[in-house]
């Protein structure tokens, strides 16, 4: 066994097994990232590789839970405050002229990013003519987003991010405390739609003015990233904006010539053709 608790060859067997029993294809995922996630799952559930395969073969909730755990991404509200400052100062002033705005937060996990975007739109006076589509492959984390309920300990950290990203009020204006939890207010939730979408398998489903696909592409292989980039390009209106994570690369995406660089450090681009 490797230090991750699973051999690389075993991982290929696992990928094929999951595809056969569920139809979900992990083949486009980065192997080092997938090895770490499978290892964490095995440690958490105290199973070895043989037991893992056996449990998955039984189907049902075991397969569902396995896929859910492997596809959940870390997230927080107003992650990368300099990025959200740029969105406030550069992108939103450009979008003010549009009568309606369609915004997509792809790989949104439990909803911290779409709620962050919603708050920015509120403070820019754009929320009421905006529709935010928040998607992820994991329905379990999407349910958290739909409920809009977050741990109060996390909200304290989010409050600092909010202020550093140019917040003009208090983050507490956007949630109510109920039974020790933070519940996002209905006025912030009404224009946010949470739905399942697989970036590696599903196609274009709308034409957006702004797409956030941040800290998701790092888990995919180069070939898979190129396919995702193509779908993002097709999903973006002309002169719309595409935002990817700071650690992610736009090079070799296959769509570079169709975009103008707005901020190379923060990975913000505008579609020009």
UniProtKB/TrEMBL annotation:
GO terms for molecular function: protein-glutamate O-methyltransferase activity. Its EC number is 2.1.1.80. Keywords: Methyltransferase, Transferase. Residues 1-272 form the CheR-type methyltransferase domain. Signal peptide: none annotated. The keyword Transferase applies. One of its GO terms (biological process) is methylation. It comes from the Bacteria. It holds the Pfam family CheR. Coiled coil: none annotated. InterPro entries: Bact_Chemotaxis_MeTrfase, CheR_C, CheR_MeTrfase, CheR_N, SAM-dependent_MTases_sf. This is Chemotaxis protein methyltransferase. It comes from Dyadobacter helix.
């Amino acid at each position: 066994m490797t230090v991750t608790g699973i051999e690389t060859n075993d991982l290929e067997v696992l990928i094929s097994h999951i595809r056969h029993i569920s139809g979900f294809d992990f083949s486009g995922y980065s192997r080092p990232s997938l090895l770490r996630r499978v290892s964490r799952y095995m440690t958490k559930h105290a199973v070895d590789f043989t037991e893992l395969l056996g449990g998955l073969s039984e189907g049902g909730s075991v397969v569902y839970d396995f896929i859910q755990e492997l596809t959940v991404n870390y997230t927080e509200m107003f992650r990368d405050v300099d990025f959200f400052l740029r969105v406030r100062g550069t992108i939103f002033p450009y979008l003010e002229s549009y009568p309606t705005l369609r915004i997509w937060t792809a790989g949104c996990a439990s909803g911290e990013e779409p709620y962050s975007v919603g708050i920015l739109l509120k403070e820019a006076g754009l929320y009421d003519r905006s529709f935010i589509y928040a998607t992820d492959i994991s329905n379990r984390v999407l349910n958290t987003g739909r409920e809009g309920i977050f741990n109060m300990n996390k909200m304290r950290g989010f409050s600092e991010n909010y202020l550093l990203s140019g917040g003009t009020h208090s983050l507490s204006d956007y949630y109510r405390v109920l039974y020790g939890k933070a519940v996002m207010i209905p006025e912030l939730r009404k224009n946010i739609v949470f739905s399942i979408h697989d970036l590696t398998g599903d196609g274009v489903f709308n034409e957006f003015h702004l797409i956030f696909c941040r800290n998701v592409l790092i888990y995919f292989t180069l070939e898979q990233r190129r396919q995702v980039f193509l779908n993002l390009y097709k999903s973006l209106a002309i002169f719309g904006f595409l935002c990817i994570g700071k650690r992610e690369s736009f090079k070799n995406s296959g769509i570079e010539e169709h975009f103008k660089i707005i901020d190379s450090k923060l990975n913000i681009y505008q579609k020009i053709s």
